[in-house]
């Protein structure tokens, strides 16, 4: 009887075990497929750039759905498989503290919308971190993600090169069925961009510096695969891609990447055996040397083709690139098959030395230092490079404008942090608040430093959690790496290269604002620790393992919430775009425009772009119909959203407009003055505040309230003095650093202040103010008004500007009498 029972229990357990394996196998392939599709899809959505603007949101919302599906599937897998055994299992739980800190920081957030998006993006990262961790516990999963990343990265490089050689329509034809919508363009927009330095390759990212960061990772990975592949065709394939990667790297014209590349190389080399270090450096130097041979030509070809396609030039570019790539590919195979064993023999005895792994990197630093001296001093070495690349290299110095600008961003970010030190100002703190803290009126919705931007988002608490998480991951990886054999070390090492490349370069730029690059970072971190053998100690893990359903249940709940939220966000985006398309088509039916817009707002309430669109339409309709219901609806919605988006200047502008529209001048003045604290470099706010102060002073004068008149007019000049003080501060900026947006007196400002001085009888001071607005077109009523008052102030002083007077009177003969009326006016 007991034997029968025992047999029954055994077969039941065997059947249950078989079911788990089957379920795990199905989930394994589904998750693998999702990962591969995402690796191909994501970069072509402009790298999933989080631009904190509706233009960039749709693919990010789509990726929320991807992440939620991954988490749902993982939660099912974990119901059968989850248990705490290794230290790395703790890292999976610790990762959830990242979105939790963003969630906590969302309560005092400067922008509720930015903060919410940031929470969801952090969940995406945790989803791919978890997927990579569990998927790559098996060698098959590791191979799938490894070669999935490598092949899609190579495709991104080829796509970029196609655009550089003018084959942009052909390149886009390969990807347009799944890439971001570029209509009405027939090519991928801004894959090559031009700025003051000339054309720069950006590939899928539309930002050259972040593409360069990506290329650093791909280049060092490719060379590593060259030196560790055993089959000749595998060596040849990876080697064949190295020269296109280097050429792409150079034509990004990224100075920061040129500085960062040797630093990352030095963080990679110590992990290799000395024989591998030697081989790695040989390939590195040889591939760069061969690339430089054709660099001048392919650069010139790309610059020329940017102006217009020429088939013969494009063919020449491809021929040069393919020939040199093939030459290096053949040499790489020969080196690995014949020179590498010889190098191994030479270094065998040397490898036994304790610090042998550091010797070659130290020599590399010395040689690199000599190379840097040759490159950055007047030795003529840079003359071997194309002019645009040579200019960029020669301009690398601490007084260069981009260095000075970044220094300013970093100081301003610290000022922001000082006001929100503990929990930060929520996700998107920098784009929401930078105008409040900026030293000069630059436009940069990115702080150009991932770590500082993270610090402003979540404060010292969230930043400490993130650092602890990173330190823990690298501790697990390095500790395991030390005790592994070389073959095991090599399996995951490319993901160390990817992670360290992205983290180091993001200290100089906003690479992590590309969700695709952030995903690659967390994917790499998950893979790095997935073969951890460091066992957890203590009884507490046994207690948790008895409740193995708890963690998967939480993950399932979070993933379901994210899934349904993502569907709503995506639907709202579709409705909003539909409303914009209807309005742009010329359809003036209010109901047709507002119905999808209202649907968007019902699914995504308080989205600042949706609200701005609706409020603008309602104000327009109110001005046409004078029906108060439209005005009331607009202001109610506006006031509601400004409570959560008080630093959104578009909405601030609409609020000022609504107050002025209803002649609430005093309230408008107070609101504008308050907002000058948040936007101290907005010339428009100074214009409005000075004009309102002047108008209120005129009203007080007409009511014979001289005290109030003087109060308002003194306030107008106080505002002007603040403006002038800021303008003088701009003059102290280093000459190499641009000030950013224009910050100078305007005609509207001068008219208001000039009228005050004119009424006070200070005609010389009035003349100086009116001068700010006399240089515009005479077709502009505001310019004519300034000229009218200016000429009157001159005549009051017994002076004249006959040429200007004649031009004005020729334009409108009535101006003669208007000027006389001002001269005769009694104030």
Automatic annotation (TrEMBL):
Lineage, top-rank taxon, reads Bacteria
O-antigen ligase-related domain location, by residue?
316-467
Q: Where in the cell is it found?
A: Membrane
Question: What UniProt keywords are attached to this protein's entry?
Answer: Membrane, Transmembrane, Transmembrane helix
Membrane-crossing residues? 26-44, 64-80, 92-112, 118-135, 147-166, 204-225, 232-250, 256-272, 284-309, 315-335, 355-376, 458-478, 490-508, 550-570
Which Gene Ontology cellular component terms are annotated? membrane
- Pfam families, A to Z: Wzy_C
What membrane topology is annotated for this entry? Multi-pass membrane protein
Respond yes or no to whether keyword Transmembrane is given for this record: yes
InterPro entries, alphabetized = O-antigen_ligase-rel_domated, TPR-like_helical_dom_sf, WaaL-like
Q: Which Gene3D superfamilies match?
A: Tetratricopeptide repeat domain
What name goes with this protein?
Answer: Polymerase
Native organism is Paenibacillus elgii
């Amino acid at each position: 009887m007991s034997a029968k029972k025992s047999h029954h229990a055994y077969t039941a357990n065997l059947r249950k075990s078989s079911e788990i394996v089957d379920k795990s196998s199905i989930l394994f392939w589904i998750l693998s497929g999702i990962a591969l599709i995402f690796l191909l899809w994501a970069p072509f959505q402009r790298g999933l750039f989080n631009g904190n603007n509706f233009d960039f949101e749709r693919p990010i919302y789509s990726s929320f759905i991807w992440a939620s599906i991954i988490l749902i599937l993982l939660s099912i897998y974990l119901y059968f498989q989850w248990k705490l055994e290794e230290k790395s299992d703790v890292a999976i739980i610790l990762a959830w503290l990242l979105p939790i800190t963003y969630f906590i920081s969302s309560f005092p957030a400067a922008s509720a919308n930015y903060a919410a998006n940031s929470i969801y993006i952090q969940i995406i990262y945790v989803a791919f971190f978890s997927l990579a961790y569990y998927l790559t516990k098996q060698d098959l999963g590791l191979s799938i993600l490894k070669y999935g990343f490598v092949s899609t990265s190579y495709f991104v490089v080829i796509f970029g090169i196609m655009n550089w050689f003018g084959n942009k329509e052909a390149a886009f034809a390969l990807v347009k069925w799944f890439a971001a919508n570029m209509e009405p363009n027939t090519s991928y927009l801004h894959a090559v961009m031009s700025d003051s330095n000339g054309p720069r390759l950006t590939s899928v990212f539309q930002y050259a510096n972040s593409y360069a960061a990506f290329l650093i990772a791909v280049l060092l990975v490719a060379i590593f695969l060259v030196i560790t592949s055993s089959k000749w065709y595998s060596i040849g394939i990876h080697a064949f891609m190295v020269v296109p990667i280097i050429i792409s790297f150079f034509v990004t014209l990224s100075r920061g990447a040129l500085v960062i590349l040797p630093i990352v190389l030095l963080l990679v080399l110590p992990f290799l055996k000395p024989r591998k270090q030697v081989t790695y450096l040989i390939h590195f130097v040889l591939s760069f040397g061969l690339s430089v041979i054709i660099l001048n030509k392919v650069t010139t070809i790309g610059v020329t083709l940017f102006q217009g396609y020429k088939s013969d030039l494009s063919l020449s570019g491809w021929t040069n690139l393919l020939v040199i790539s093939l030459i290096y590919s053949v040499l790489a195979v020969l080196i690995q098959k014949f020179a590498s064993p010889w190098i191994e023999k030479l270094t065998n005895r040397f490898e036994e030395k304790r610090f042998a792994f550091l010797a070659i990197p130290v020599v590399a630093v010395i040689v690199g230092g000599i190379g840097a001296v040759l490159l950055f001093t007047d030795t003529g070495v840079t003359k071997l490079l194309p002019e645009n690349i040579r200019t960029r290299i020669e301009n690398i110095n601490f007084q260069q404008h981009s260095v000075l600008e970044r220094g300013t961003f970093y100081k301003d970010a610290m000022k922001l942090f000082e006001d929100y030190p503990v929990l930060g100002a929520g996700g998107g703190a920098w784009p929401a608040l930078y105008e409040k803290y900026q030293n000069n009126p630059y436009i940069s919705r990115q702080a150009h430093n991932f770590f500082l931007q993270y610090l402003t988002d979540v404060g010292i608490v969230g930043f400490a959690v993130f650092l602890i998480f990173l330190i823990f991951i690298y501790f697990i990886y390095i500790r395991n790496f030390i005790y592994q054999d070389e073959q095991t070390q090599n399996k995951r090492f490319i993901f160390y290269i990817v992670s360290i490349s992205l983290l180091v370069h993001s200290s100089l730029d906003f690479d992590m604002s590309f969700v695709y690059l952030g995903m690659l970072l967390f994917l790499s971190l998950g893979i790095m620790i997935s073969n951890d053998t460091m066992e957890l100690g203590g009884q507490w893990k046994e207690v948790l393992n008895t409740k193995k359903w708890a963690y998967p249940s939480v993950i399932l709940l979070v993933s379901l919430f994210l899934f349904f939220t993502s569907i709503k966000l995506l639907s709202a985006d579709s409705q909003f775009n539909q409303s914009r398309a209807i309005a742009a088509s010329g359809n003036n039916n209010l109901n047709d425009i507002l119905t999808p817009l209202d649907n968007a707002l019902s699914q995504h309430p308080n989205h600042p772009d949706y609200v701005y669109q609706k409020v603008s339409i309602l104000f327009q309709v109110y001005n046409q119909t004078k029906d108060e219901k439209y005005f009331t609806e607009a202001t109610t919605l506006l006031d509601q959203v400004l409570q959560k988006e008080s630093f959104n200047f578009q909405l601030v502008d609409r609020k000022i407009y609504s107050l002025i529209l209803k002649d609430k001048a005093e309230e408008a003045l107070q609101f504008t003055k308050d907002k000058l604290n948040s936007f101290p470099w907005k010339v428009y706010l100074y214009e409005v505040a000075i004009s309102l102060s002047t108008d209120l002073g005129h009203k007080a004068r007409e009511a014979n309230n001289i005290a109030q008149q003087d109060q308002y007019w003194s306030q107008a000049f106080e505002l002007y003095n603040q403006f002038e003080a800021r303008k003088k501060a701009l003059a102290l900026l280093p000459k190499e650093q641009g000030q950013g947006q224009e910050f100078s007196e305007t005609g509207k400002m001068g008219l208001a202040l000039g009228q005050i001085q004119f009424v006070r009888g200070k005609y010389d001071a009035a003349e100086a103010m009116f001068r700010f607005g006399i240089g515009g077109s005479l077709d502009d009523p505001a310019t004519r008004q300034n000229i009218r008052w200016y000429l009157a102030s001159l005549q009051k002083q017994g002076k004249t500007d006959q040429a200007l007077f004649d031009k004005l009177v020729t334009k409108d003969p009535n101006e003669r009498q208007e000027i006389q009326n001002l001269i005769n006016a009694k104030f």
